[in-house]
Amino acid sequence: MAQLSYVSGSVGLITLQNPPVNVLSAATRQGIMESMKKALNDPKVKSVVICGQNGVFCAGADIKEFGPNISGPSIVPLIYDIEVANKPVVAAIEGSALGGGLELALTCHYRIAHSKTRLGLPEVTLGLLPGAGGTQLLPRLIGIPASLELITTGRHITAAEALQLGLVDHVTQSDTVDSAVKFALSVEGEPLDSRRISKRPCPHLPDLDAVFEAVMQKVRQKFYGAIAPIACVQAVRAAATLPFSEGMKREQQLMSTLFTSGQARALQYSFFAQRAVGRWSMPSGASWNTSKARPVHRAAVLGLGTMGRGITVALAQAGVSVVAVEIQEKQLNEAREHVYATLERGAQQSGVSPSCANITYSHDIQAVADVDLVIEAVLEDLSLKEKVFQQLSAICKPGTLLCSNTSSLDLNCLASQTKNPELVVGMHFFAPAHVMKLLEVVYGSKSSPEAVATAMQLGKKMGKISVAVGNCRGFVGNRMLKPYIEQSYFLLEEGATPELVDKALEEFGFPMGVFRMSDLSGLDVGWRVRKEDGLAEPVGTSGQITRLRGGRRYSPLGDILCEHGRFGQKTGLGWYQYGRPGGRVAKSDPWVFNLLEEYRARLGLTARPIDQQEVLERCLYSLINEGLCILEEGFASSPEDIDVIYVFGYGWPKHRGGPMFYASMVGLATVLERLDHYYRSNPDVPSLKPCKLLRQLVASGSPPVHKWKEITKKIQNRL
Ligand SMILES: CCCCCCCCCCCCCC(=O)CC(=O)SCCNC(=O)CCNC(=O)[C@H](O)C(C)(C)COP(=O)(O)OP(=O)(O)OC[C@H]1O[C@@H](n2cnc3c(N)ncnc32)[C@H](O)[C@@H]1OP(=O)(O)O
Ligand SMILES: NC(=O)C1=CN([C@@H]2O[C@H](COP(=O)(O)OP(=O)(O)OC[C@H]3O[C@@H](n4cnc5c(N)ncnc54)[C@H](O)[C@@H]3O)[C@@H](O)[C@H]2O)C=CC1
């Protein structure tokens, strides 16, 4: 796991050997410790270089080992041993130096990095802090403000930025190990005291209290409810105010609290879930093992409204050449300007030149004839989309993949309009499409595994976290949103206000409660769908209100708002008031309170006190129940798929893992008991009826999320 070899006569070269990314597993830590001891005791060795095999230095601790029974040599004494060494130790950094990997490099006396290396302390994203001395060493090396920024965000930086910050001593474009060995030879025998970071004082900061207060405030606001960023600030403060050994004790104290926290478990679960969704599978068993993605060099985007523009930007940024088609001249011109400005802004932020040269614009659908893949993003209208798919099927060269960005229409209907339904898949992006990380790749009943593989691969190239899902109404994310929104309306009928419901959800950790979110996305969107489904009927001022439609409880409150022209932020009025159309600051609206009072009076409903717990239970448990139904029906292949969709597409707080993980933390038996309770008092609300899978999981002793597959498979096989 770590090997000592001898090079250039006097250099001991320690190579970390733990593929794929040389994590510091127990065996690797043991290997480093033994190799270091051997090198330091060998009189022939005058200097040491530490590197990682296969072009990766080290991705830090092995997250899989985290838990109450962590074994092997501790990482902290190991790093002390390196720093006190009486021979120069040089880190040869390439690929990644992250977390414990960067801490290992910080204990070396010199750091040489390849220009393509990424460095960082991402522990905060795992619910931890850099607990192998990182919070004490980094501020001593690069100062407090820069350390606070890196440690509280977990941001990865380039070698160039690391050099600028003083984090590395030298950046090379050539062979890193060769450069480090040459460097080691050049410093053999030189005094080392000034190179030991722990011996340095932390750079003085005159307004220390004010700096820490401001950062703490920012962190509390930005990472609402998360405990790790706060502990990170506290640990860096220890570096600024305490001697090194005392600071290390404080770091360990804070780390041990985080290490066993539910938030750390959730975030570490999420780390692996993000990677697991990439290993997609379809109910037929198709996966990467059986299907190969086709290369996509040239893609078309059809419809340059809100979504088409974002998709064009994301494709161009991924280096794909784009044909962008829009029928309306005005929209086309606006889109061209918008895409250009967004790419320019992105280029300025990333320092990479913009990719505008890759895009051609047209108002003629014939322009898509020679592309490898089309993403359709025209209006959400089935007959329009059907016509577009007929045209695409006739125009495109054989083998072109036809993708739809529809958020709710049946993919099979679109596929049936084409000559090759196996080439049709959904690519459901989220707004704004060039920013949001999530992509649902939707397979219809005839989609070929190759088509799914190609969409998944393209999503990855575009920097998305792609999740393959089945073709049910609303797919996974929007389908689960339906009972969540429905419950929020029922709560209003029973006595809650939009403010009360939103406060409960925002304190849970959502960036926006359900009503503020609905105002932002536009209330008319759901209204249109409800009208198409025959649910929304005009109420008028004297009309009868029926709260039972199709045998189910129904709340027309959302429809009533729309009948008054209140579509949310875009009209300046929705569940809140915004001052003007397009306004962003939500203020309570007495009109809404009056409406609710009149509505309840008209229907003979008595408002009762509703607490935050009930809001959370009814909104979240009904959403969780729907997620479990989706799993039961096989439209998602694992709970990880659902959790990743909610964290990256719907603002589910990261430190709560996702709805499925959260349900397992709360206790599946508790979720079942509460759903049973609410369903008993609302037998006309089917989404509160606990699904079969939930009952089965509880009956099987509520296994952890990673074991659910054993039970879902059995249920799915029986379907
Ligand atoms: C009981 C009470 C005790 C209380 C006291 C406790 C004290 C404990 C002290 C411990 C102090 C330890 C401090 C420390 O060192 C903390 C850390 O280092 S935490 C880890 C920080 N590192 C990271 O977050 C890096 C994570 N990795 C990445 O960002 C990417 O993998 C990377 C950029 C390196 C490479 O990306 P890419 O090429 O895209 O590959 P993948 O992401 O697909 O990864 C490939 C493969 O490797 C797995 N993997 C990656 N990193 C890790 C890791 N750190 N641990 C385990 N496994 C890792 C990844 O899952 C992939 O495998 P799959 O099988 O495909 O999933
Ligand atoms: N807006 C959102 O937040 C999201 C929307 N979606 C889906 O994306 C699709 C597009 O939605 P938006 O961008 O919001 O709509 P939009 O109304 O902003 O844009 C649609 C564009 O398509 C153009 N168009 C219509 N027919 C066309 C044709 N035959 N050829 C070329 N262009 C044509 C229109 O002129 C318009 O510019 C819909 O299916 C929607 O459900 C999916 C995820 C999120």
UniProtKB/TrEMBL annotation:
Q: Where in the cell is it found?
A: Peroxisome
Give the Enzyme Commission number.
Answer: 1.1.1.35, 4.2.1.17, 5.3.3.8
Catalysed reaction, written as an equation:
(3E,5Z)-tetradecadienoyl-CoA = (2E,5Z)-tetradecadienoyl-CoA; (3S)-hydroxyhexadecanedioyl-CoA + NAD(+) = 3-oxohexadecanedioyl-CoA + NADH + H(+); (3Z)-hexenoyl-CoA = (2E)-hexenoyl-CoA; (3E)-hexenoyl-CoA = (2E)-hexenoyl-CoA
The record places domain 3-hydroxyacyl-CoA dehydrogenase NAD binding at 299-471
* 3-hydroxyacyl-CoA dehydrogenase C-terminal domain residues: 474-578, 615-705
Is-annotated flag, keyword Repressor?
A: no
Sample GO molecular function, one term? (3S)-3-hydroxyacyl-CoA dehydrogenase (NAD+) activity
Q: Which CDD domains match?
A: crotonase-like
Q: Which InterPro entries match?
A: 3-OHacyl-CoA_DH_CS (IPR006180), 3-OHacyl-CoA_DH_NAD-bd (IPR006176), 3HC_DH_C (IPR006108), 6-PGluconate_DH-like_C_sf (IPR008927), ClpP/crotonase-like_dom_sf (IPR029045), Enoyl-CoA_hyd/isom_CS (IPR018376), Enoyl-CoA_hydra/iso (IPR001753), NAD(P)-bd_dom_sf (IPR036291)
GO-annotated biological processes = fatty acid beta-oxidation
Query: Which pathway?
Result: Lipid metabolism; fatty acid beta-oxidation
Q: Which keywords annotate this record? A: Fatty acid metabolism, Isomerase, Lipid metabolism, Lyase, Multifunctional enzyme, NAD, Oxidoreductase, Peroxisome
Cellular component annotations (GO), alphabetically ordered = peroxisome
State the family it belongs to. Answer: In the N-terminal section; belongs to the enoyl-CoA hydratase/isomerase family. In the C-terminal section; belongs to the 3-hydroxyacyl-CoA dehydrogenase family.
Q: How does it assemble?
A: Monomer.
The protein's name: Peroxisomal bifunctional enzyme
Native organism: Cynoglossus semilaevis (Tongue sole)
Its lineage reads: Eukaryota, Metazoa, Chordata, Craniata, Vertebrata
